[in-house]
Every structure is written in C-alpha cells, then in structure tokens.
C-alpha cells in the first residue's frame, strides 16, 4: 500500500501541474469526447441536436466509443461542468497507471523490478503531458491493466478469468480493441503447468484453454451488450460499441491511403448514406473491397502504418499546440517532440532487451540467447542508423519473442504475457487499419514492464 501511495503521489503532482498550466480547449477527437460528456451530464444521453425545420431535434450518437465520455460525464454531473474537472480527472486516471503497472508487474517479476516499472510510468514525459489532453488512451490503458491484474491476482484461476473478462468488457466501452485480448485471459490456467506457453502434446490442457478463452470472450461482452441494445434501439442499425471500424478500415485501404489518418470524402465512395451505422457499414464494405482488389497495395502499407504508430511520439505536443498555439513557439514545439520521441525510442530498445535472458550454463541456451541478443542489436542498429528512423520492428519483436519456446528463455507467466498480448493486438490492429503515434500510448506501461524484465535467469521447468 505504501508503494502504491508513493507512486500515485509522485505521478499526480507533475500531471496536475501540467494539466493546470498547459491544458486548453479540447480539440480534434477530444472535442467530441468532451461534448458527449457534457450531453451525458445534462441527462441528454450520448447525442447532439440536429435542426429540422428550424427546430432542434435530439439525435443519438455512437460513432465514437461511449466509455470515456460517460466516465467524464459522471464527474461533470457530480462537480458541475467546470473547466478544471477533466484536468483533475485525467491527472488522477493517469496517476493510477503506475500503481497498476507496479501491481501487475510484481505478480510476474521481483518487487524491485516491479517498483522500477511503476516509477518509469510515473515519470514518463509522454504520459505526464498526455494528462492535459481530453483523450481516451490513459483510461483505456488503466482499464485493461486492471483487468489483467484482477485475472492474475485472484488465487482461483477460473474466477480470476471471469472477473478479469468483465472488467475488460468495461474497458471495451472506452476502447473496443480491448476485446481482442479477452481470449488471452485463459493463459491464467497455464501458470501452474509450464513456463513455455506453447507446448505440443498436452491436448487436454489445450482443450481447457480453448474453453476458458471462449468463456472469457463471452463474459467480456456482458458489460457491452446493454450499450449494443441501446444502439439497436435508437440508431439506424445495430452496432456493438461504435461505428468507426468501417471508417478506419477504409482509411487504411483506399487508393489515397498513406498509412496514417486521411479524411474520407463522399467522392471516395459511400455517396448515398444517411445514418451512422449505414455509413460505417458502407465504408467497411468499401474497405474490404479495396483489400480484395488490391491486396499488395494494402500489405505494402503495413510498414508505414506501424511506423506512424511506433517510430515517434508527437501527438501530445501537437494536440496542446492546436489548443493553445501561443504556448508553443516552434523552438519549444520541436524540443518537446524530440524529447518525447527520444524517451519513447529508448523505452522500445529497453523493452526489446527485456525479451533476453541471462544465461551462463548450457550450450543450447547460451547460443540461443546470444543469437537473440545479436539479432536484437541488429534491429537497434538498423533503427538508429536508417535515413528515416525505423523503430517499429522493435515493437513487433517485443510482441512476438516472449511467445517463442527459445532455449534458455526466462519465466513468462500470465502476469507478463497478458501485457504482451495487449502489445501484440495493438500491433495487429494498426497493421490492419492505420497508424498514429497516439495509439502506442496505451501500451507504454507494457513497454515499461518489458524494459525491467531483461536479463533474468532462465525459467525452471515445472513438473
């Protein structure tokens, strides 16, 4: 408890100061999240007004996920719709991230390593600056880490999986991608079996894992389904959480795609649509059609998508500059971007080292871990020396290596593999859709955990 309090206070003080002095009017997606929160606080639901015949008519929303707006709307309702409310709320949410990073990490690492992981999250400049933004990423990361912690903390594995899945469903209302990690909660059953997650031949265990994965997916949908029912009732069709998946797929696949966000126009397709659900489905069909007709073009964009996601960190600076341009002259803007990017890249390198064990005995383990270290060094060299910095392969390696049965590997319990699954599903999702650097903020705590996990002793085989 003392460690949790220290981490929270150490994180909260710089975050509340940054939010107080730098936060401005919510911009970009933050404008819509904040507008939705005000409407919810006023008892109008997730909606806006459209004018028909000169009179305002209530118009329901579900283009953006509702979770963050509902969360912020609760505090607007309790404390009033004051400008300081999101500042304090976001600072508090962001300050809980190091606490749950530490709590989760200590289930799979030593207490010292776990404390360092929590401290890294507490002092991470990108996360500190992000607390001044009205954006979903800190809350999405917190909900997912809490789900993982609940899963691995409960001494009864099945109950832990069930409770973790329900928490994950709550997080899916903030970030629907959270549902992608639901099957991985079943890894909690594997902890007592073997330190290697993929061991051929234990078919009975595999069957139990499959059943647990299916049940976890089903339970994760329980908190979501009431919102889905609401969408079916008030929208022009049913939508699980939100109606931006089709848009995002089209943005990542249409002829003008660059790998990052581009504005879709009616001239690109979907000219004659009305409701949000109909529009999203139209873009979904359009995106799938583009992938079928031009698969090479779509696949060729994957490096660019992952590059925009993992190669740099500039979104917090650009968001705050958009809100208050006078606070961000060009020299400060460039310096802040370079600082955030440098810290992010260093963290990626450290996270890659977290996949390597410290081996001194055994020819095969020493050779395997030495080869892994050499390949990692090569990736880092290419990332640093390329004309255009290329750090996204490091994120891909961090998402892949912990699953491989490499001789001499360290212990990878569910407390560590679940965070890795968040990184892996994030890599997958943005390879499919499109990339922006703000999307890696959700996995920054995961990178901090991996960064302190390096050079551990090889795992001991259990019976």
UniProtKB/TrEMBL annotation:
UniProt-listed InterPro entries: LipidA_mod_glycosyltrf_83 (IPR050297), RgtA/B/C-like (IPR038731)
Subcellular location: Cell membrane
Known EC number: 2.4.-.-
TM region(s), chain numbering: 84-105, 126-149, 161-185, 205-225, 342-359, 366-384, 390-408, 415-433, 439-455
GO molecular function: glycosyltransferase activity
Superkingdom assignment: Bacteria
Topology within the bilayer: Multi-pass membrane protein
Keywords per UniProt: Cell membrane, Glycosyltransferase, Membrane, Transferase, Transmembrane, Transmembrane helix
Pfam families linked to this entry: PMT_2
Residue intervals of the Glycosyltransferase RgtA/B/C/D-like domain: 65-227
Top EC class, one word: transferase
The UniProt record lists the keyword Chloroplast: no
Region forming the signal peptide: none
Protein name: Glycosyltransferase family 39 protein
Species for this entry: Pendulispora rubella
């Amino acid at each position: 408890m003392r460690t949790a309090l220290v981490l929270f206070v150490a994180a909260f003080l710089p975050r509340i100061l940054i939010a107080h002095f730098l936060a401005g009017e919510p911009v970009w997606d933050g404008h819509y999240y904040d507008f939705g929160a005000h409407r919810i606080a006023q008892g109008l639901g997730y909606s806006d007004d459209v004018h028909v015949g000169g009179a305002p008519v209530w118009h329901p929303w579900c283009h953006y996920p509702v979770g963050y707006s509902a969360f912020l709307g609760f505090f607007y309702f309790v404390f009033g719709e004051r400008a300081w409310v999101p500042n304090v709320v976001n600072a508090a949410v962001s300050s809980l991230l190091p606490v749950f990073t530490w709590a989760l990490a200590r289930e799979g690492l030593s207490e010292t390593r776990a404390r360092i992981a929590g401290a890294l999250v507490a002092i991470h400049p990108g996360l500190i600056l992000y607390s001044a933004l009205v954006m979903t990423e800190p809350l999405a990361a917190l909900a997912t880490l809490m789900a993982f912690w609940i899963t691995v903390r409960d001494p009864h594995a099945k109950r832990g999986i069930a409770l973790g899945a329900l928490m994950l469903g709550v997080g899916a209302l903030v970030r629907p991608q959270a549902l992608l990690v639901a099957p991985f909660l079943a890894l909690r059953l594997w902890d007592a079996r073997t330190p290697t997650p993929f061991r051929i031949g234990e078919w009975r265990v595999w069957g139990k894992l499959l059943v647990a994965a299916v049940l976890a997916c089903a339970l994760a949908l329980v908190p979501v389904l009431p919102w889905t029912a609401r969408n079916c009732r008030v929208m022009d069709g049913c939508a699980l959480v939100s109606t931006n998946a089709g848009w995002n797929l089209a943005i990542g696949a249409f002829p003008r795609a660059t790998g990052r966000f581009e504005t879709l126009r009616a001239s690109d397709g979907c000219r004659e649509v009305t409701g949000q659900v109909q529009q999203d489905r139209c873009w979904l069909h359009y995106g799938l059609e583009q992938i079928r007709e031009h698969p090479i073009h779509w696949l060729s964009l994957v490096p660019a998508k992952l590059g925009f996601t993992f190669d740099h960190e500039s979104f917090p600076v650009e968001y705050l500059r958009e809100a208050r341009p006078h606070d961000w002259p060009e020299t400060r803007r460039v310096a802040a971007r370079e600082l955030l990017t440098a810290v992010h890249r260093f963290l990626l390198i450290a996270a890659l080292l977290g996949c390597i064990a410290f081996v001194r005995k055994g020819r095969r383990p020493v050779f395997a871990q030495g080869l892994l270290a050499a390949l990692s060094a090569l990736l880092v060299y290419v990332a640093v020396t390329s004309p255009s910095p290329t750090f996204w392969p490091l994120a891909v390696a961090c998402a892949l290596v912990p699953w491989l049965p490499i001789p001499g590997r360290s212990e990878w319990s569910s407390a560590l593999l679940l965070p890795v699954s968040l990184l892996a599903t994030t890599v997958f999702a943005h390879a499919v859709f499109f990339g922006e650097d703000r999307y890696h903020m959700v996995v920054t705590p995961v990178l901090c955990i991996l960064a302190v996990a390096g050079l551990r002793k090889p795992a001991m085989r259990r019976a």
